[in-house]
Amino acid sequence: MRVRILVLGYLLLAASAYATEPPPLLPEPTVRAIASEVSGTAAKRNLQDLTLFHRMRGSRGFRAAAERVRDRAKEYGLSEVEILELPADGAVFYGTQRSRPAWDVDFAELWEQRQEGGSWVDAERVASWEARPIVLAQDSASGEAAAELVDVGAGTAEGDYQGKEVRGKLVLTSSQPGAVYKLAVDRLGAAGIVSYAQNQVTGWWKEDENLVRWGHLDTFPAPRTFAFMVSLKAARAWQERLAAGQTVRLRASVKAGQHPGAYSIATGVIPGADRQHEVVLSCHLDHQRPGANDNASGCATILEVGRTLAKLVREGKLAPPRRTLRFVWPPEIEGTTSLLNARPDLAARALAVIHMDMVGGDAEITKAVFHVTRSPKSLPTFVNDVGAAFGRFVNEQSYALAATGEAPYPLVDPEGSKRALQAEFVDFTEGSDHQVWSEGSWRVPAIYLNDWPDRYIHTHADGVANIDPTKLMRAAFIGATSAWYLAGLDANQVPALWEVVRRDSLERTADALARSERLRAMGEGAEADNLLRFHLAQEAAIVDSINRFAAVPPGARKSADDHLALLRRLVGISERKLTGTADVVYRRAPEPKGPMGGFGYDYFQDHISQKGIAAPALLKRTGLWGGGGEYAYEALNLVDGRRSVREIRDALAAIYGPVPLPEVAEYLGDLETIGILQREKVSHAP
């Protein structure tokens, strides 16, 4: 134990030297040019434009926002700017993504009524689409209802309705409308739903009773009625009256519904000498109005990266890039899955992605913590080290400014704050389009820039006032420098790159040792050794990943080999392995491509339901460092036609924590049953 603690201290001490370095990777004049040009104010101006639109996939609002992005990208000098139209009608599939029909709203209002004489009349307008479109749940259908309100609590179990007659009435629920619809509407005949579902659980959950949360009905099958969203404050007032025996009567009027449409995806490039390889800057354009941080911020910030780099090239301050830079503004997850299936040439050219989803929250308001997030461990890559290098540089510079009033690169916008960025550098988490790019179908490494938490995400209060131009500026700087470096990386730059990778490798090794000690303390020595073996293989693969961009010169290769040998000696793992008997090896079927779960449609769940297969145990697992969805995502990513089921289990255990082999075998077997995997051979493990 003492030896391991000493090793851990040595590694952390060696890695700490990182904080005193000058601008990383790029020449100082390049860093200076980018830092001087990038503007948080310009980004916030474009962000404000986007918040004017209720940007549901396929809708009139989304199309208008895409046109705004297209026009601005042309104005900024991007090339080959266009809007790609991918038909979306509910029948067309793009790999694993069933396209969702467009959804538009012409009118929606909810009124509380009072009794005058012998009739009910409108007394107070509770919700208006025109004023605040978030009040109508996504995918609501047209309908009219004037009826009593019945409180059903969660409304997701039969017991919630015991002794209550809801047929022809409106049900008040604390759950998302989609979770209530089948029971309340389809089975029990409710006329519509009124939901006060709260925001994602954070330290600020339920503190603001006035927030109205974004609501959703299921896309498939198309709903027959509507759902309105109201605040917790409004719901509690009604509940008090209902508990006192009073009648609450509401009148709803909705003109809305699904219709055949298209995913309208704006894109443009800064062309490089190499048109066969691209570095992509990605975001997601869809969201409710205003949706300022989520995700007008990411959309406006990659647009600012495009403006900055195109202008610097045009003015001769930067030479044209070696590789092409591409910018894309799709709907979240479903749009990216559809794009990569519809345009496989884009996927084939992509070498790396810088993805931005929520990058502008003013931490004093939103409580946001900014993250630079790595690619999944199934995809070991040096690209993570590039993003981390520039992120740490901004941390250092912004802290120096905050602490002393001076910094060579303050990166402060004239209209923004002066707080230190304090970015966190974290392992892969799901939740945005980066997980599509990095999925096993395409395996494009991604740097993911994002805020979490944000107390106002998915509510009407995710507004422009919550946005810090300095934060936008810094996110744009990290994205621009990372993209520019990756677009120009050649063999001459690899020795300096290797020094960055080596130092990050020491930090990763320190983390791996700490995790292994936790396992040993739990009596899981074999699992601890498995984790360390996996880690060493990861470090070797990270070095090898450089070759996709540039050849590793002999000197850097020798230094890397020496470093890896040192890690093996420091880690000193046992040779004992977790072994099994004869084992299956899978490969992924050529089609369909894409993740098993998307927005509005879950390919895996749909297809196992058709086969009468129960949800596998792996999806419910809670590990030391991950949960069921993460285990499943990485399990499929790890399928490569060479790893056995046992080897995939061992990798998953190293990434997220020990997991029983039968659970992994069951999940992969289900994927085989629905045609995602094909059995390659039987491996006879030692």
Structure description:
- With 686 residues, this protein is an alpha/beta fold.
- The chain folds into four domains: 2-11 and 491-571; 38-99 and 262-488, Aminopeptidase, CATH 3.40.630; 102-259, Glucose Oxidase, domain 1; 582-684, Orthogonal Bundle (Arc Repressor Mutant, subunit A), CATH 1.10.10.
- The protein has 20 helices and 19 strands.
- An eight-stranded mixed β-sheet has the order 1-11-13-12-14-17-15-16, with helices on both faces. The chain has a seven-stranded mixed β-sheet with strand order 5-4-10-6-7-8-9.
- A hairpin with a 2-residue loop joins β4 and β5 (119-128).
- α1 runs antiparallel to α14 and α3 (40-50) packs across α7.
- The longest helix has 28 residues, at 494-521.
- It is globular, with a radius of gyration of 26 Å.
- Residues 1-20 have low confidence and may be disordered.
* CATH class descriptor of the largest domain: Alpha Beta
Q: What structural category arises from helix and sheet content?
A: alpha/beta
The largest pleated sheet is described as:
8 strands, mixed
So, CATH architecture of the largest domain?
Answer: 3-Layer(aba) Sandwich
What is the number of E strands? 19
List segments where confidence is low: pLDDT < 50 over at least 5 consecutive residues.
1-20
End-to-end C-alpha gap: 30 Å
Under CATH, the homologous superfamily of the largest domain reads Zn peptidases
CATH topology of the largest domain: Aminopeptidase
Q: What is the typical, i.e. mean, pLDDT?
A: 95
Overall, the morphology is: globular
Helical proportion?
25-40%
Tell me the number of helical segments per DSSP (H or I, 4 or more residues long): 20
Question: How many individual domains?
Answer: 4
Rg measurement, Å: 26 Å
Determine the strand fraction and express it as a percent band.
15-25%
Strand order of the largest sheet: 1-11-13-12-14-17-15-16
